[in-house]
Amino acid sequence: VTTPDKPAGRGQKLHESDVKIAARELGLPILQPEKLRDPAFVSAMEELRPDLGIVIAFRMLPEVVWAMPRLGTFNLHASLLPQYRGAAPINWAIINGESKTGVTTFLLNHEIDKGAILGQVEMPIQPEDNVGTLYDRLMTVGADLVVQTVERIAAGEITPVVQPDEDASLRPAPKIFKNDCLIDWTQSGKRIIDFIRGLSPYPAAWTRLLREEQEANSAKIFEARFEAGGPEAPCGTIDTDNR
């Protein structure tokens, strides 16, 4: 099951998802529903009589779909659940200055990112990491974890672990909007650098540039670092070469 083909590129030619391409090469049936509650799609799924469902970077499934497989449906999430439930776990882990994160496989249920945990792999966050570099590493270990989870389920070796109830130590990972990306220059240098790393390359931290007698402009900032012996200036001062 994958997304419908979509126009892309300068010529707006229909683009197939990587899942569809791989499935065709393997001779697997391919379903591309516009709506996941479409009776024709649900009926096609029922005819397949799936044993196990796996969800990776897809839309929210209705219960009629995720409850269908005999062994349930599991998802891959880019955090060490129950920490960082939500749409942007990699971003928020870096923004909050975490030293580690990871990936989790868990069973889907009625609550978002709260199903029983099947497996986890921990990964350190390097000081030079941004969202792009950390994402690439997490997806590599995540792919391995998905395979391991399937193999352990097939062998009957997994006992799902119920996630703990809400408590004050849990940090959320809500979707990030443009206004959330505005840099607060009153924060400490470390927090600002973590903020920029946690939004790079997408959606990108930004700031306003205010010049005397000129219209305000904005600029995206993708990288920042400390420089020893830098000039002392009031908070928020920007030194530019005027290019």
From TrEMBL:
<dbReference type="InterPro" id="IPR036477">
    <property type="entry name" value="Formyl_transf_N_sf"/>
</dbReference>
<protein>
    <recommendedName>
        <fullName>methionyl-tRNA formyltransferase</fullName>
        <ecNumber>2.1.2.9</ecNumber>
    </recommendedName>
</protein>
<dbReference type="InterPro" id="IPR005793">
    <property type="entry name" value="Formyl_trans_C"/>
</dbReference>
<comment type="similarity">
    <text>Belongs to the Fmt family.</text>
</comment>
<keyword id="KW-0808">Transferase</keyword>
<dbReference type="InterPro" id="IPR041711">
    <property type="entry name" value="Met-tRNA-FMT_N"/>
</dbReference>
<dbReference type="GO" id="GO:0004479">
    <property type="term" value="F:methionyl-tRNA formyltransferase activity"/>
</dbReference>
<dbReference type="Pfam" id="PF02911">
    <property type="entry name" value="Formyl_trans_C"/>
</dbReference>
<feature type="domain" description="Formyl transferase C-terminal">
    <location>
        <begin position="175"/>
        <end position="238"/>
    </location>
</feature>
<dbReference type="InterPro" id="IPR002376">
    <property type="entry name" value="Formyl_transf_N"/>
</dbReference>
<dbReference type="InterPro" id="IPR044135">
    <property type="entry name" value="Met-tRNA-FMT_C"/>
</dbReference>
<keyword id="KW-0648">Protein biosynthesis</keyword>
<dbReference type="GO" id="GO:0005829">
    <property type="term" value="C:cytosol"/>
</dbReference>
<feature type="domain" description="Formyl transferase N-terminal">
    <location>
        <begin position="1"/>
        <end position="149"/>
    </location>
</feature>
<dbReference type="InterPro" id="IPR011034">
    <property type="entry name" value="Formyl_transferase-like_C_sf"/>
</dbReference>
<dbReference type="Pfam" id="PF00551">
    <property type="entry name" value="Formyl_trans_N"/>
</dbReference>
<dbReference type="InterPro" id="IPR005794">
    <property type="entry name" value="Fmt"/>
</dbReference>
